[in-house]
Amino acid sequence: MRFIKPFFIALLFCCASTQVDAQELKFDYDAAGNQTKREWICINCTQLTTTATAVTSKSDFVAEKPKSNSPIKDPELKLIAYPNPLTETLNIKFDPLKRFITSIEVYSMVGVSFFKKSYRYVEEEFHEMIPFTQMTPGMYVVKVSFSDGKQELLKVVKQ
């Protein structure tokens, strides 16, 4: 009984201290409904508000708007997709060394397929122009399949 009272007082103190620094998440979205910004708001904190803008990665589909028209390059695959962000057409270039592109598919963020095309072996540099004129602004995933069975996912933004 002697140890129970201090234990409950310590437990109450811990619970009260976590409520003082309560946190809230705030999200911003673009016109297409894509999450563009994530903001942690700490109520009654002495720290500054932390803002985190998500960065694109292979496992995270939340992305910020690219800051330049620099192409997406994968040096290991020699695959280039440009411009990003795009307005009308996406260009995909590939220099086949040990493998070649077998198909390209374009999906919206909800999984709707907008473009699909299969290819045969090409010895020279591969170049495909994918039209985006009829697509609404937002983020799209380009799935490139190769002859060795591997796939590469590229994220592009249509303005």
TrEMBL record:
The keyword Signal applies. It holds the Pfam family Por_Secre_tail. Residues 82-151 form the Secretion system C-terminal sorting domain. Residues 1-22 form the signal peptide. Keywords: Signal. This is Putative secreted protein (Por secretion system target). It comes from Mucilaginibacter auburnensis. The lineage of its organism: Bacteria, Pseudomonadati, Bacteroidota, Sphingobacteriia, Sphingobacteriales.
